[in-house]
């Protein structure tokens, strides 16, 4: 007999252009796509550089430091695998790209635009995801 298991986080959709990001997260690395044609960094990842059109790229490991550009507090409808209130941040990384991630370790009433945050990695039933928390 199997015991009931709690619902885990939904698995992110992956493609040839995005799998490096999720595989890096599994190793505790926050990777950004880097154009080898012109040096531009971009996120979300894609096949071609919007700056120079090059299809050649590699990755750069971000420092994990940034600031809160904006945020939203998701209450409803509840999605299995998330805790509520679900604080979702738009994070400006120090490297100059912006990404969406959860903000943890702080309540929705205490988060502020411009707040300094840093990445940490959390394991959700084998799925390791980047999360951000205030810099202490
Ligand atoms: Zn480029």
Structure overview:
With 136 residues, the chain is mostly beta strands. It has one helix spanning 19-26; strands at residues 31-35, 41-42, 57-61, 65-74, 86-93, 98-103, 116-124, 127-134. The strands form 2 sheets. Strands 4-5-6-8-7 form a 5-stranded mixed barrel. A hairpin with a 4-residue loop joins β5 and β6. The longest helix has 8 residues, at 19-26. The mean pLDDT is 93. The protein binds zinc ion (ZN).
List the topology elements:
Layout: H1 19-26, E1 31-35, E2 41-42, E3 57-61, E4 65-74, E5 86-93, E6 98-103, E7 116-124, E8 127-134
Parallel strand pairs: 6-8
Antiparallel strand pairs: 1-2, 1-3, 4-5, 4-7, 5-6, 7-8
Query: Helix tally?
Result: 1
Q: SSE string, helix = H, strand = E? A: HEEEEEEEE
CA-based gyration radius? 16 Å
Mean pLDDT: 93
Q: Percent of residues in helical segments?
A: under 10%
Low-pLDDT segments: none
Q: Based on CA inertia axes, which overall geometry fits?
A: globular
What structural class results from the helix and strand content? Answer: mainly beta
The main β sheet shows up as: 5 strands, mixed, barrel
Strand tally is 8
Ions, cofactors, ligands: which are bound?
zinc ion
Report how far the terminal alpha carbons are from each other.
46 Å
Order of strands across the biggest sheet? Answer: 4-5-6-8-7
- What amount of the residues lies in strands? 35-45%
Summarize this structure as a short list of keywords or feature phrases:
6% helix; binds zinc ion; three-stranded antiparallel beta sheet; 39% strand; mainly beta
